[in-house]
Amino acid sequence: MRGVWHTERVKSAEEELMAVVPPGSLMRKAAFGVATHALRLLAGRRRVTLLVGAGNNGGDALWAGYFLRRRGVAVSAVLLNPAKAHAEGLAAFRRVGGRIVSEVGSPDLVIDGIVGLSARGPLRPQAAALVDTVTAPILAVDLPSGIDPDTGEISGPHVKAHTTVTFGCLKPVHALADCGEVHLVDIGLRPVDPDFVLLDREDIAWPVPGPSDDKYTQGVTGVAAGSATYPGAAVLSTGAAVLATSGMVRYAGPAADAIRARWPETICTGSTTDAGRVQAWVVGPGMGTGTSSAEVVRFVLDAGVPVIADADAITLLASTPSLWDARDPDAALVLTPHDREFERLAGPVGPDRVAAARKAARRFNAVVLLKGHRTVVAAPDGRALVNSATSSWPATAGSGDVLSGIIGALLASGLDPFLAAGYGAYLHVLAAELGADGAPVPASGLMTAIPDAIRALRRS
Ligand SMILES: NC(=O)C1=CN([C@@H]2O[C@H](COP(=O)(O)OP(=O)(O)OC[C@H]3O[C@@H](n4cnc5c(N)ncnc54)[C@H](OP(=O)(O)O)[C@@H]3O)[C@@H](O)[C@H]2O)[C@@H](O)CC1
Ligand SMILES: [K+]
Question: What is the complex's ipTM, to 2 decimals?
């Protein structure tokens, strides 16, 4: 599990560290890391241009230029604000024959030291015009300039980095925006209590049956989804629940015939009231937003077991506040909105997706999984994680129905709801990747790749 820290926390950790290490040593360590990655990207080529802003980010770039010069690279620097350029960095750069120029030229690599942790807003016009002239790959120092460090928001001109070399710890921009390949250089910073985390494969302990388990002890998932118009959503959600764990699945709703035909191992009934006992409910996909659907939402919220509410169930919860009254306050709830559903429920997402999901999680006392290329999961106790899609293959019709079934099965297995949502998001991306294998994959293909994804997870 990798931690991510907001810039204010990084800056104070850096200040504490700077007080006990020799002056300038942190910057030189950082810059040496930048130079090392630059040499790797240059792969024997020899021309680099630095874009140098007014602060320490520019200082890093100038010191990186110094180290590169000492390795025989021809380095030029464009100073965006010569009067404010980092004095020691500039002096060192000049000492080893670094050249100050006014245009980018045609280098093999550009190093972006325009702005780092203190960045606010998009690139200013002078920097934007300069970046526009770049054709070489860009190595960003700390973060791609022009992207908000704490939210990843892109609100105007910004650097499109091939590679980002950052220092000490990851910041939100690295998890929430495209920074190219991200490399972390150790400068001795050891912050604690991250603001949110990123799950890695080795963090995921997928529930598998033990020797004394039977079909009930692994958790029974109930699925209340689908309609005469949308039976497919029920097939996808139920199928995902069937494949995600070895527990039993009960389906309750109008798509029972379609479910029986595709998933003979499920127990199907026409209504949630006849479904029998379950350890978690999935409610919402393709069910419609009519009165009978509202009654189904009311029933599962009152059932005293964890619930994952998706799609139409979220719309109903937004439009019919009285449904919340039915909720068993001790039973976990996972909400899985996309941005428009989130807006119906809690207002616009805004630029800070993590903060928005966190606020909604507290407000609804629910785990909120805000879907997107970078999915955010937040718990009412303040925990948050971000899971990045490795491609856009999961962005296909019915994909959310599959996710709801996976999370439902994990909830039924007894997993902590925050982890159930996080593991579900992770597996969903992996299944899309494996199911696609380089070509578009429908949601049914994503669903059938769930076993391959679990195998891949368990092998690593
Ligand atoms: N602290 C440490 O120990 C270490 C720090 N390290 C490095 O320091 C970096 C942080 O440096 P920093 O705090 O000096 O500010 P930095 O990000 O360079 O910005 C400078 C100035 O840019 C301006 N500006 C703002 N927004 C802008 C925009 N959109 N477009 C254009 N310009 C914009 C604004 O100045 P203004 O023009 O408003 O006066 C701002 O003050 C950090 O990212 C890392 O690289 C490493 O060496 C490791 C050790
Ligand atoms: K930068």
Answer: 0.96
